[in-house]
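pls design
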C-alpha cells in the first residue's frame, strides 16, 4: 500500500479501530475525530492534530457541539504548537497500543521508509514477519519517529509503502 499519497486522516483511520471513531459520516475524508484513553483527538485536513479531555456528556453531543466545546475548552493540546509533527511521536504521546484480536490476518510485510528531504539517498527497508497490517503500520510510524530523533529532527522520514508478502495465515 502506497502511503505517501494518503491524507493524514486516512492513515489515522488505518491505525484507530472504528469503535473509537466519532462523527465519521459527517466529516470530509481529509479530517478525522476519535477518542482514545479519555481524550478526543482531532486530525485536521493539513495533518495537524489537537487533543482535549473527553467531555462527560460526549454521547449527547452533535458534531457542532463538540467543535464548540473544542473552541472554548481550556484543556486543549496542539501537537504542532508543541513541536510534535510526526504520527509516531503523537502515538507515543497518546500511549497508543496496537489492538490485538483473537482472529486476525497476519503475514509478512515489507516496509519502505524514505527521508522526504533526501528521498534518493535515505531509504530504509525491512521486513516484519507474522504481524497484522495495523502492527506493521504502527511499527513503521515508530521507526520513522526513531529515525527523525536520531537525526536531531533534521530529517523527515515517512512511510513510503507497506507491501504484503505471500505467506499470510489466519491465527486464532
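designed seq:
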Amino acid at each position: 500500500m502506497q502511503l505517501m499519497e494518503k491524507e493524514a486522516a486516512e492513515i489515522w483511520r488505518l491505525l484507530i479501530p472504528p469503535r473509537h471513531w466519532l462523527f465519521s459520516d459527517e466529516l470530509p475524508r481529509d479530517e478525522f475525530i476519535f477518542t482514545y484513553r479519555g481524550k478526543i483527538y482531532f486530525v485536521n485536513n493539513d495533518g495537524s492534530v489537537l487533543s482535549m479531555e473527553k467531555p462527560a456528556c460526549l454521547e449527547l453531543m452533535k458534531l457542532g457541539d463538540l467543535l464548540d466545546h473544542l473552541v472554548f475548552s481550556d484543556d486543549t493540546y496542539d501537537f504542532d504548537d508543541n513541536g510534535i509533527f510526526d504520527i509516531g511521536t503523537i502515538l507515543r504521546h497518546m500511549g497508543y497500543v496496537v489492538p490485538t484480536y483473537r482472529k486476525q490476518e497476519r503475514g509478512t510485510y515489507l516496509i519502505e521508509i524514505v527521508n522526504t528531504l533526501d528521498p534518493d539517498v535515505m531509504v530504509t527497508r525491512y521486513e516484519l514477519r507474522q504481524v497484522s497490517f495495523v502492527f506493521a503500520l504502527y511499527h513503521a510510524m515508530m521507526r520513522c519517529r526513531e529515525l527523525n530523533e536520531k537525526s536531531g529532527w533534521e530529517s523527515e522520514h515517512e512511510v513510503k509503502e507497506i507491501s504484503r508478502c505471500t505467506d499470510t495465515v489466519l491465527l486464532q
